[in-house]
């Protein structure tokens, strides 16, 4: 085991992983300059890591969503703000900076998305994501109607809901195993 400081649970050394995961980690290193600690932490359960990678890539990186990648990252940060998830606030705040070209927007959303200068469409999307996180039992047709009024169709409403739900899950995993973000994220895209 190596670098147990990124998680309260053991983190396998990259060389101990199956060949496909070693290859994936090398690709991350080449493309991102690092292996995100969430992946290193999930390597504790290799088969779950594979499913996590597939789900993350489908939700956050696919081109067939009516939401932009920036909008999905904004949802991730808003949900993580509500849940006070240090890992996701740092990692996805960096992605908001990278995708928006705005060095402040990620932190603005992390601290209080309601004070950020957002388009009405984005504000409606983040209001919904916050409510789905904070009081999910209160979500109803009026909330979906507000999204429709802001210009979202049913496919977009699905993607907003799925993205918020995914980050509620990952936030709880990060809290539960005390996952720490890569320190590199703090200085990126400033």
UniProtKB/TrEMBL annotation:
SUPFAM superfamilies according to UniProt: AhpD-like
InterPro entries: AhpD-like, AhpD_core, CMD-like, Uncharacterised_peroxidase-rel
Domain Carboxymuconolactone decarboxylase-like as annotated: residue spans: 50-97
Protein name: Alkylhydroperoxidase
Parts of the chain that traverse the membrane: none
Record keywords: Oxidoreductase, Peroxidase
Gene Ontology terms, MF aspect: peroxiredoxin activity
């Amino acid at each position: 085991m190596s670098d147990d400081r990124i998680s309260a649970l053991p983190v396998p050394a990259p060389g101990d992983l199956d060949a496909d995961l070693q290859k994936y980690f090398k690709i991350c290193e080449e493309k991102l300059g690092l292996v995100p600690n969430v992946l290193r932490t999930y390597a504790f359960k290799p088969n779950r890591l594979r499913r996590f990678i597939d789900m993350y890539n489908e939700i956050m990186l696919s081109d067939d969503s009516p939401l932009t990648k920036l909008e999905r990252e904004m949802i991730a940060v808003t949900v993580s703000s509500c849940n006070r998830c240090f890992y996701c606030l740092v990692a996805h705040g960096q992605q908001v900076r990278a995708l928006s070209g705005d060095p402040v927007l990620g932190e603005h959303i992390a601290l209080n998305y309601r004070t950020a200068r957002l388009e009405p469409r984005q504000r409606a999307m983040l209001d919904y994501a916050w409510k789905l996180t904070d009081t999910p039992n209160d979500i109803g047709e009026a909330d979906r109607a507000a999204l429709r009024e802001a210009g979202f169709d049913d496919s977009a409403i699905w993607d907003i809901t799925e993205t918020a739900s995914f980050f509620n899950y990952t936030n709880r995993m990060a809290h539960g195993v005390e996952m720490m973000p890569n320190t590199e994220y703090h200085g990126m895209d400033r």
